[in-house]
């Protein structure tokens, strides 16, 4: 129950005892106070979370919004100058922003789509009675437990131009070496590989958990109906996983919009420009670049808010699609 | 249309110490409704799943018609199954559920529509064809599961406790409908249940299993009148048959100080090994009388309206040598039922007395 609940039923339940003064206008605040005291332990128990949330999430969030409306230099934080939506209009006219947005989109698609498809396939395989199932399940979570820095450094080596394992393999197959870091598509593919490697197992475990909730007799019925394993996957497993798939799409999309560590470390030199021609600079890198390389905090805050709004739009669209589908199925 | 034959069919689950189904021999006639019945864990569902191809056959063979299907995959067996929980596809409509097998088999859309409509008409499902299973009641779901089987026009129907998720009243209604439908379609059907009333009312023949071993397979009437052993005697019939073991004496078995007469020849054969004899009598095969007979004390009287059930224990002079696991049950006229605590004597109508060997537990005729 929320504090400000105006539900008449709630009011009836929490009505004051009969000896309370019947004066109608005075009753409302008194009732609210009574409700607060009665529920004081409930509020006490949830308070620690909301204190932390307020201090470390809500306040920075709102303060970022405040900053984004000002011209602020990192060297002189107190000397903020109100510029209204100036930072936002500047952002929309900034070619770097559109470049970063485009990069974020392509890397997002290149990583999210294969990541979720592979995860679904892996989960399907792990759902069978395999020998050493537990081992595989733990093994799948290993990339997720690895630090981004370690993983990216290793992958940076693998994708290296002169001594990288992947180019060595390409050469062994008689193909040309690829300068992974320099090309636009190649660098984005390489970064997507790192992201996919890290998150596939995590998503597979989520899918696996959902798959295990599907009753086995559905598969038996489908077997008797003559459906092959593949048809069972299409007609039994995937429909049952729809809500889970939507959830992973939302989570992966949020992760993709905020992508930062992998492209930062992929360059190998800690530069935030995302390659010589910004070919893999994501929104996250751009924001960092603006704030901590160019010291323009107001601009960086505006970028942060733009990223947040993009996530809101994407998640909202997903929710809308889900609701429409659910209504159609009713 | 086909017969079904189990030949020495055996299933041993990995790491189990005894077979779940032990050398099952069973021949099911064309168009017959055979009921597999037994207590839980008796192997009845496993037998059905072996026939469906959902369970391996470790030894022996299973034939449908002339085809040996022991090792063929489920889809090649031309069977349809109704599951206990119906196993309807939750995201498909009723029509899609019923037509799924045909769709997989590549049957044309028009054909599927026609066959689904036909099945829906038979099962009164026409108003619900566009609904999803979760928008249906339990009874409707059960009918959709039936419809899914009918649409396939298989050689054999398999039903795994299809009524156990329905409430008591609907169960009685549906069981009549299923039996009638089966007789109308004349499709060989194997029906699994743990409920002996269901088995008796529905089956052309009933196969009773216990611990994976077939005890008896006969028409319901035969099963009731001539149970092959004490297990079948106690399992079939409600209330259950009274089965009592006591010392064999001249002319019968001594129970509670009195002698219950047993025909001489059967007495001799049944008691030959141990000197004891097991007799069984159904609750309705008893006459209550004052005077001579086996003395019992009435513990409980259950008034059912049409008749009354007395639960009684053997009277005073129990020799300590009599084994009976439960109270003796007597079915009697409701108006003339004796009161609780009243001592009465009971006599068993002679042609309704079952005699068993106490060692082998087998029937003696």
TrEMBL record, chain A:
Which keywords does UniProt give here? Cell membrane, Membrane, Transmembrane, Transmembrane helix, Transport
Which Gene Ontology terms of cellular component type are present? plasma membrane
The UniProt entry, under Pfam families, shows: BPD_transp_1 (PF00528)
Q: Outline the segment boundaries, as ranges, of region: Disordered.
A: 1-29
Q: Where is the composition biased (Pro residues)?
A: 15-24
Coiled coil located at which positions?
Answer: none
Give the residue spans that cross the bilayer.
41-62, 105-126, 138-160, 180-199, 240-261, 302-322
GO biological process: any one? transmembrane transport
- InterPro entries given in the database record: ABC_transporter_permease, MetI-like, MetI-like_sf
Q: Which PROSITE patterns match?
A: ABC_TM1
Lineage top rank: taxon: Bacteria
Q: Which residues form the ABC transmembrane type-1 domain?
A: 101-322
Q: What is the protein's given name?
A: Cellobiose ABC transporter membrane protein
UniProtKB/TrEMBL annotation, chain B:
List cellular component terms (GO): ATP-binding cassette (ABC) transporter complex, substrate-binding subunit-containing
Q: Which residues form the ABC transporter domain?
A: 4-236
Keyword Acyltransferase in record: no
**Molecular function as annotated in GO:** ABC-type transporter activity; ATP binding; ATP hydrolysis activity
List UniProt keywords, sorted A-Z: ATP-binding, Nucleotide-binding, Sugar transport, Transport
Q: Which GO terms describe its biological process?
A: carbohydrate transport
InterPro entries, alphabetically?
AAA+_ATPase, ABC_transporter-like_ATP-bd, ABC_transporter-like_CS, ABC_transpr_MalK-like, ABC_transpr_MalK/UgpC-like, Mo/tungstate-bd_C_term_dom, NA-bd_OB-fold, OB_MalK-like
- Report which residue ranges the record marks as coiled coil: none
Q: Which NCBIfam families does the UniProt record give?
A: PRK11650.1
What protein name does the entry list? Multiple sugar transport system ATP-binding protein
- Read off the lineage from the record: Bacteria, Bacillati, Actinomycetota, Actinomycetes, Geodermatophilales
């Amino acid at each position: 129950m929320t504090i400000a609940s105006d539900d008449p039923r709630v009011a009836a339940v929490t009505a004051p005892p009969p000896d309370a003064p019947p004066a109608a206008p005075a009753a409302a605040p008194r009732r609210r106070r009574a409700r607060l005291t009665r529920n004081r332990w409930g509020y006490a128990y949830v308070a620690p979370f909301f204190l932390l949330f307020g201090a470390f999430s809500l306040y920075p969030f709102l303060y970022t919004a405040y900053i984004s409306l000002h011209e602020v230099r990192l060297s002189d934080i107190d000397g903020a100058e109100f510029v209204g939506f100036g930072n936002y209009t500047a952002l929309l006219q900034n070619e770097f922003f559109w470049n970063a947005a485009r990069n974020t989109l392509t890397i997002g698609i290149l990583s999210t789509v294969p990541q979720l498809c592979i995860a679904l396939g892996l989960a399907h395989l792990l759902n069978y009675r395999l020998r050493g199932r537990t081992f595989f399940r733990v093994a799948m979570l290993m990339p997720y437990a690895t630090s981004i820095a370690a993983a990216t450094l290793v992958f940076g080596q693998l994708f290296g131009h002169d001594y990288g394992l992947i180019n060595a393999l390409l050469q062994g197959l008689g193909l040309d070496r690829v300068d992974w870091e320099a090309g636009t598509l190649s660098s984005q593919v390489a970064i997507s590989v790192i992201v996919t490697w890290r998150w596939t197992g995590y998503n597979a475990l989520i899918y696996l958990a959902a798959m295990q909730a599907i009753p086995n007799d559905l598969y038996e019925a489908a077997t008797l109906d003559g459906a092959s394993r593949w048809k069972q996957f299409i007609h039994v497993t995937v429909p049952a996983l729809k809500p889970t798939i939507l959830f992973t799409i939302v989570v992966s999309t949020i992760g993709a919009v905020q992508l930062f560590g992998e492209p930062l470390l992929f360059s190998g030199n800690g530069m935030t420009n995302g390659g010589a021609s910004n070919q893999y600079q994501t929104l996250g890198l751009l924001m960092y670049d603006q704030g901590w390389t160019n010291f323009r905090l107001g601009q960086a805050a505006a970028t942060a808010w733009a990223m947040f709004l993009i996530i809101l739009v994407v998640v909202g669209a997903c929710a809308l699609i889900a609701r429409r589908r659910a209504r159609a199925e009713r | 249309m086909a017969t079904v034959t189990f030949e020495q069919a055996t299933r041993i689950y990995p790491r189990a110490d005894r077979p779940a189904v032990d050398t099952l021999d069973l021949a099911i006639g064309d168009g017959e409704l055979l009921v597999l019945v037994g207590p839980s864990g008796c192997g009845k569902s496993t037998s059905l799943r072996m026939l469906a191809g959902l369970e391996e056959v470790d030894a022996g063979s299973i034939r449908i018609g002339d085809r040996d299907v022991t090792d063929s995959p489920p889809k090649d067996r031309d069977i349809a199954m109704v599951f206990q929980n119906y196993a309807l596809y939750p995201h498909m409509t009723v029509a899609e559920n019923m037509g799924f097998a045909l769709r997989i088999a590549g049957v044309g859309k028009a054909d599927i529509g026609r066959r689904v409509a036909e099945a829906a008409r038979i099962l009164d499902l026409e108003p619900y064809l566009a609904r999803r299973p979760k928008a249906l009641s339990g009874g409707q779901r059960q009918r959709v599961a039936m419809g899914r089987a009918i649409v396939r026009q298989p050689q054999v129907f398999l039903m795994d406790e299809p009524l156990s998720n329905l409430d008591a009243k609907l169960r009685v209604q549906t069981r009549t409908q299923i039996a009638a439908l089966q007789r109308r379609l004349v499709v060989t059907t194997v029906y699994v249940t743990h409920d002996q009333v269901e088995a008796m009312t529905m089956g052309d023949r009933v196969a009773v299993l216990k611990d994976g071993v077939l005890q008896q397979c006969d028409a319901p009437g035969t099963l009731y009148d001539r149970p092959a052993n004490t297990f079948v005697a106690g399992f079939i019939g409600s209330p259950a048959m009274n089965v009592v073991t006591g010392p064999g004496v001249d002319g019968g078995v001594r129970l509670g100080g009195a002698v219950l007469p047993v025909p001489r020849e059967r007495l001799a054969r049944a008691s030959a090994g141990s000197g004891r004899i097991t007799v069984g009598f159904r609750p309705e095969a008893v006459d209550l009388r004052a005077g001579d007979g086996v003395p019992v004390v009435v513990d409980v009287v259950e008034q059912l309206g049409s008749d009354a059930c007395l639960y009684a224990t053997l009277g005073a002079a129990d020799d300590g040598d009599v084994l009976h696991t439960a109270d003796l049950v007597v079915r009697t006229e409701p108006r003339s039922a004796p009161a609780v605590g009243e001592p009465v004597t009971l006599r068993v109508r002679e042609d309704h007395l079952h005699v068993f060997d106490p060692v082998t537990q087998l029937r003696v005729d």
